[in-house]
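Folded chain entry
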Amino acid sequence: MKISPRESWPNTPQLQRYAYAALAVVCIGNLMYSLTIGGLDFSVYRSGAMTIFHNEGFDKELYVIDLLRLGPDFALPFTYPPFAALLFLPFAFLPQKVGIFLMMILAYAVAWWVATLIYNYVQKRGRTLPLQHRLGRYGTIALLAAIILLSGPWRRGLGLVQINPLIMLLVLWDFIRPATRIPRGLFIGIAGGIKLTPLAFGLILLMRKDFKGIMTLGASFLTTIIIGFIFLPQEAIEFWTSAVSDPSRVGNTNYLDNISIQGWLMHFGLSSGILLKVLHYGLIALLMAGTAWLIYRLEQRQLLISQIALNAFLMVSISPISWSHHNTWLPLLAIALWVDAFPLFIDQMSSAVRMSALVFSWVGVVGLYISPMWIGIAVHGSLDRLEDIAPLGLILSAIPITALFSAVLLWIYSSLKTTNKPLV
């Protein structure tokens, strides 16, 4: 008897177990890496917190340029506001591996929650995820979480034990929670107190004309600054008067992993001069204006995940330096393009626009999923001396983010051309 391909598949419980097993393998693998040879950024966070009470005899000041000395030519500073050092303080009293373990568990929980949000959003938009009918709700979410954790931004961030999942948690929760007693903006302001870039999400509140939310964001952020001045007055003065504007503390803008507008322009050879400045600020202005308009259009349709994903892309793009692992929002943007951008806007355009947007989206999402750093390393042929990578490696590493930038611009353009179309 001939068996159809579908009949030869494992049954639903078996596939669910495979999905859970895949997630477990990914989590255990990342955890083992972080506990052994990873955790570099967490070491910086912990060192910053250790300066407060000089834990373990650590006697450096918070904003010295070589807070964490890893070699004669390699040292890392603490680049966050004083409030962040206070927030990390519990880790100064815990063994480093225990702190890494806790940070990883938090990251896994956020990845699961993001996968759940994606699943729910896709269902709400009338779409079906691949294998969903076989995996069921939780099997699909487990597989999605594994896919998220394997993506370039998450994979790299987990290896470094980065704080970006916490930032993502605070911002997402602020928009998704019921804003009945506490106005929106509270948790975005706290996220801004940890790392300044999340303040960009105030644009969504502005386009909604949620002035109470904007004031709450401002008050929350100001409170984090005041807390820093109360408990770490000298460090707060140093940060807000000098360290915050010192580019040498963040890194090389032309490093292959920088996916900001300034970064990819430099990767294409615009290392300095008036042309770089004109293009840099011109593209920032274009993206900011276009994003504001598109968020307004998305708000009309109550498309929250797309608003957040688009604003996150703006945040990553306009910062002078955005390492690819800062872009934990990539899965949300990929879903937003699939379920909102194309069916509501881009598919109504000419075939040339549709095909261009499709190619740009695939190249951008797949390339960033692989990781610009690994693309550059593949061309360079080594993990060593990446600061001296050849121009070809820089160019190829910049193609994915440039393609995704182009796809977002076509999304914005399509929203301008479909202004009078009925809402769906």
